[in-house]
């Protein structure tokens, strides 16, 4: 009897101990996140100023800024969003609303799951061989945007499918009952209801793309750019210019990488400041996505 | 008048019937066209895979015209950029494996513990807060993790291990481990949550504690899902580039000692890409051969994971 009680007590202690260990393990993850942000803030906060955002990189660490980097990031993201979103949503709509249950659909689905597991640098190699040298698009903003678009396409497709699946079939049946065609049902009912979910997925996907470094280095992004791409608008006819698409570029994470790789410590401070900007942007985007998801879950009651 | 009205009526009917018919045809055609467009978008994802495999094979084939497969897999030196180049991939593979092993040594125990804690111990409110914060770890750009590894973790480790060089695989691997932590913990937790409640309740009814239920019932029952989480974590670790490029050094080094610096496959690709290599040179082709090796490593591990999952799948 005493033995059993002893064993029982031991088991209960083990149970409690594991509860504490589990909490500590969870805290390790959070403390690391806090240490990461803290380290960046201590090193880099002093460099954050108006001047930092409006200056080109420079040989002198105290004069260097991230103007060409954030403009490059913004333009690359524009190309990425404009190509990945229509493509991904269309593929998601097809797989969820149209696709028959056959081998082709199965192959497409398995393929999308596998694409999500391909290392990002491999996308860079593919873009280098295909876009840069076969299609002759050069080391340009266009190539970079398309590369990242391919990289986030699986995320957009999966997010689209999930939010379309959440639309109850009663909605579709009601539309069909009124004589709507399949496309009319999708366009006027299914897509509007799933816009929020798709938007959340797109924001998450873009926040991943904005921090991507390796594939862009692979396609030959420059690390030192002291000019801006041509403006998209101009005063004379036809007022819009696409010259910037073919411009060489750098992006924020590559600028940061370049500063980390320099031996002088002053450049490391610049790297920390660039990292702060980068992390603020990704956390902000993720925050918006979480908020959107929360709002949607609360508001929509079928 | 009535006759006239009748004529007008039937005329209008005929007219409108005609337009209804043609409208229906237009409608059917445009429905078809839209469906085909959407199908093309879905097929595009297959084109991406074909392009990736195609480009890697095409450029690697040119590389292997100059380098024999035997040299590639047995030579212990990778000095492609030197005057007398040697083409042995082993040092890069060893660097990749050591950093990934360190990362997994951090992420698997920690991630599984967190998964058990979140799924069995934490209250619903605590989980709703802790899980999203933890998942932010995977949202941080990898180059920022590189900075953290080189300028925060390495100096910290050097206090414990004074002989640790500035570039080392231990620091890079540890940071990658923290980075992939959310993949391991969230997916494992989802798998444990998916185990039917009656199995959990059966265990409690037998007098088991939460810890015993978790380790002896839930983990075995959710093994296939947990294995998927591990495989995904490994894929991320092997393909991780910026952390190793920043913190593990760029010198190929055939070693299994994580306290040394060594280039990984991905770090080599970055190093070559940063230089201005002429298109078509053997060094240019070498990054595709390296990339193909990376893909094959991930593939091998994924197939292994698939086999494991199939072998240990539990159905209820």
Main features:
A: 302 residues, mainly alpha, 0% strand, B: 316 residues
Care to describe what's here?
The complex is a heterodimer of chains A (302) and B (316). By secondary structure, chain A is mainly alpha-helical. Chain A has helices at 2-44, 50-53, 67-98, 103-115, 120-134, 141-165, 169-177, 182-210, 214-218, 252-260, 265-299. Chain A is globular. Chain B is an all-alpha fold. Helix content of chain B is 77%, strand content 0%. Chain B has twelve helices and no strands. Residues 1-11 of chain B have low confidence and may be disordered. Chains A and B meet through α1, α3, α4, α5 and α6 of A and α1, α3, α4, α5 and α6 of B.
In terms of topology, how is this protein built?
The complex is a heterodimer of chains A (302) and B (316).
Chain A: H1 2-44, H2 50-53, H3 67-98, H4 103-115, H5 120-134, H6 141-165, H7 169-177, H8 182-210, H9 214-218, H10 252-260, H11 265-299
Chain B: H1 2-66, H2 69-74, H3 90-121, H4 124-135, H5 142-160, H6 169-193, H7 197-205, H8 210-221, H9 223-239, H10 242-247, H11 265-274, H12 282-312
Helix pairs in contact in B: 1-12, 3-6, 3-9, 5-6, 6-9, 7-8, 9-12, 11-12
Which spans of chain A of ≥5 residues are poorly predicted at pLDDT below 50?
none
Assembly status: heterodimer
Q: The biggest beta sheet of chain A, please?
A: none
- Most strands sheet of chain B: none
Helix content of chain B: over 70%
The count of strands of chain A amounts to 0
Strand-and-helix sequence of chain A, N→C? HHHHHHHHHHH
End-to-end Cα distance of chain B, whole Å, is 78 Å
How large is the radius of gyration of chain B? Answer: 29 Å
Terminal-residue CA separation of chain A: 57 Å
Shape of chain A: globular
Q: Report the strand count of chain B.
A: 0
Count the helices of chain B. How many?
12
């Amino acid at each position: 009897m005493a033995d059993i009680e002893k064993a029982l007590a031991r088991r209960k202690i083990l149970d409690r101990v594991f509860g504490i260990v589990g909490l500590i393990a969870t805290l390790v993850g959070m403390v690391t996140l806090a240490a990461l942000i803290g380290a960046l803030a201590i090193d880099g906060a002093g460099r954050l100023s108006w001047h930092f955002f409006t200056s080109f990189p420079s040989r002198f660490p105290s004069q260097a800024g991230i103007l060409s980097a954030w403009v490059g990031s913004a333009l690359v993201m524009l190309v990425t969003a404009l190509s990945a979103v229509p493509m991904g949503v269309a593929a998601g709509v097809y797989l969820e609303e149209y696709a028959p249950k056959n081998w082709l659909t199965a192959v497409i689905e398995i393929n999308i799951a596998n694409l999500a597991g391909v290392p990002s640098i491999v996308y860079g190699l593919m873009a280098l061989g295909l876009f840069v040298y076969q299609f002759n698009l050069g080391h340009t903003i266009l190539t970079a945007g398309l590369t990242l678009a391919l990289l986030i396409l699986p995320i957009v497709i999966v997010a689209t499918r999930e939010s379309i699946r959440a639309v109850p079939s009663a909605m579709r049946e009601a539309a069909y009952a009124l004589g709507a065609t399949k496309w009319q049902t999708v366009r006027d009912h299914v897509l509007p209801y799933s816009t929020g979910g798709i938007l959340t997925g797109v924001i998450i996907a873009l926040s991943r793309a904005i921090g991507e470094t390796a594939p862009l280095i692979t396609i030959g992004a420059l690390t030192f750019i002291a000019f801006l791409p041509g403006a998209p608008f101009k005063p004379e006819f036809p007022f819009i210019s696409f010259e910037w698409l073919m411009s060489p570029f750098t992006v924020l994470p590559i600028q940061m990488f370049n500063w980390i790789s320099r031996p002088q410590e002053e450049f490391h401070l610049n790297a920390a400041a660039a990292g702060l900007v980068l992390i603020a942007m990704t956390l902000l985007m993720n925050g918006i996505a979480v908020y959107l998801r929360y709002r949607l879950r609360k508001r929509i009651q079928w | 008048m009535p006759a006239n009205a009748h004529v007008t009526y039937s005329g209008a009917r005929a007219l409108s019937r005609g337009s209804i018919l043609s409208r229906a045809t237009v409608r059917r055609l445009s429905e078809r066209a839209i469906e085909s467009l959407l199908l093309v978008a879905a097929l595009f994802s297959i084109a991406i895979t074909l392009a990736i495999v195609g480009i890697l094979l095409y450029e690697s084939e040119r590389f292997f015209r100059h380098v024999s497969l035997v040299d590639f897999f047995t030579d212990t030196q990778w000095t492609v950029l030197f005057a007398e180049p040697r083409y042995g991939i082993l040092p890069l593979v060893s660097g990749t494996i050591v950093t990934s092993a360190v990362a997994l040594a951090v992420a698997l125990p920690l991630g599984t513990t967190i998964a058990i804690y979140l799924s069995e111990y934490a209250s619903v409110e605590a989980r709703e807060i802790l899980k999203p914060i933890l998942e932010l770890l995977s949202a941080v750009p990898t180059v920022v993790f590189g900075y953290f590894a080189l300028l925060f973790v390495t100096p910290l480790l050097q206090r414990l291990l004074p002989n640790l060089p500035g570039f080392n695989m231990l620091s890079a691997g540890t940071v990658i481990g923290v980075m992939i932590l959310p993949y391991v913990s969230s997916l494992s937790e989802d798998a444990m949550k998916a185990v039917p409640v009656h199995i959990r309740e059966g265990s409690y009814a037998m007098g088991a504690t939460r810890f015993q239920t978790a380790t002896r019932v839930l983990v075995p029952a959710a093994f296939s899902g947990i294995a998927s989480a591990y495989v995904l974590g490994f894929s991320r670790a092997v393909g991780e580039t910026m952390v190793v490029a920043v913190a593990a050094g760029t010198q190929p080094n055939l070693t299994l000692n994580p306290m040394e610096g060594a280039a990984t496959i991905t770090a080599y690709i970055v190093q070559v890409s940063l230089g201005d290599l002429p298109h078509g040179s053997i060094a240019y082709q070498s990054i595709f051969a390296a990339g193909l090796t990376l893909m094959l490593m991930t593939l091998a591990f994924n197939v292994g994971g698939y086999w494991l999952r199939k072998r240990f799948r539990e159905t209820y």
